[in-house]
Amino acid sequence: MFNIKIHKIESSAHENDGTFLQTPFWCEFKSRHGWTYRRFEIEYTLPPLNAEEGCDKSKSAVVECEQSERIETTVCTEVAVLNRSFAKGMFSIAYIPLFPKLPYECTPEELLDKAFSDDNESSVPEALEGTETTTNSVLINQEIITPETQTIEFAHFLSELAAALKPELPANTIAIRFDPDVSFSSPEDRDLFNYGMKMVSYADRLKLRKNSVDIQPPDSTLVDLTSTEEEILEKMHSKWRYNIRLSERKGVAIHRYLGNDINLSEKINKFYELTKITNARDGNTSHAKAYYADLIKSSAEEISKGRDVPVISLYIAEHEGEEIASIMTLFSHDEAIYLYGASSNNKRNLMPNHLLQWTAMKDAKAYGSKYYDMYGMPPEGKDENHPMHGLYMFKANFGGKNIHRTGSWDIPLKAIYLPYSAAEKLRAFWHKKVIKKLKGR
Question: 244, exposed or middle or buried, with CB in 10 Å at 0-12, 13-18, 19+?
């Protein structure tokens, strides 16, 4: 269907844009912590939904050609494939984070919302202002494209992409795992899409499986940084604005550290100490201290060499000489990511976490990032009786747009995948359910 061709490449045209998980910087960092990676250029033919439609042209090289009286599109893009070995190298998993996008550009949500709103005759999209048309007439004259209308094409695309990549991966690879860059405005829409993918896989025997364990957080909230600081604050819950001002009034100071700061080791030690306190409180696990140190130092080292790579920062909230909370962030040209956070059990009433996040948002905006990703939130935490309600409210009340990605999808390559998947599910149940319940979460 897609006639996929791949070529291994050594360098990338996307050093510091797109998702950070696909940047060479992140892949090189992960390669020092148990992973290997390969980068490929991918070229494929995109069959049209109709003669007018193509794919997202903003970041792809596009060539149109006519075949059998139809217009087809050739798309060129690139992807990084990470690989992790287990059982002393007996088998491995290939992992592709936040890739690919949907094959076809969807009809804008704003257009669909206006079409079904009560005043659709009086409002039209900005691009159509001044024309003699209505939103409904626009939709009537074009094919409506949504994620749900692309489940057949997307399921086949993942299957064909896995088949094209398989010969280029280590022989002991038992599965290729995708975390597609496909998001929805509600968990229900996401679940409907995933159900459709499962049905297509079953009907067409694609061996595409929805993994019960998601690698990247499928649910998050994104704060728009293209607005002014006043507009960003206005979108926050009023209590969150109050908490930020309260923290400032009470004398909480936020200090930012980069990987080349002379006292970085001391500050990493403090961050790790706070991380252990947080883990004991919440029943979580974390990386080794060397992992965090390598991440922030490698960013500063690459920047000092003139490379345009994401900026890793460590923020620490201090009050009267006591360091009480900390976060680690990543800034790129497209996104800012709240990677890790930790806090003391002391002085939590001073709301240092609110001021930490707001300080990082302002710095990310100044850097040029387009949005600030809270990087994980429990959608079920919206229920005030849920044990994760506090975490949900903390992240959601910064005024971002909630998104819900598909989560991880696997293409098994070997029979050993089934027992591996079962063991993976059992491990996740133990850590996310049993241990958290024992911790009262």
Answer: buried
Pair type for strands 209-210 and 371-373: unpaired
Sheet with 371-373, strands from edge to edge, namely 183-184, 401-405, 219-224, 371-373, 335-343, 322-331, 311-319, 253-257
Phi, psi values for residue 403, rounded to 5°: -125, 155
Query: Is-cis flag, bond preceding 100, omega within 30?
Result: yes
pLDDT of residue 61 exceeding 50: no
3-state helix, strand, coil in the chain (%, to 5): 40, 25, 35
Place of tokens 């027992």: 419
Which pTM value belongs to this model? Answer: 0.88
- Euclidean distance between CA atoms 213 and 406, whole angstroms: 12
Tell me what pLDDT residue 145 has. Answer: 87
pLDDT at 113: 73
Integer Cα distance of 277 and 283 in angstroms:
10
> In this structure, are residues 352 and 252 in contact, taking their beta carbons and an 8 Å threshold?
yes
Give the position of tokens 């659709």: 120
Predicted local confidence at residue 355, as pLDDT: 98
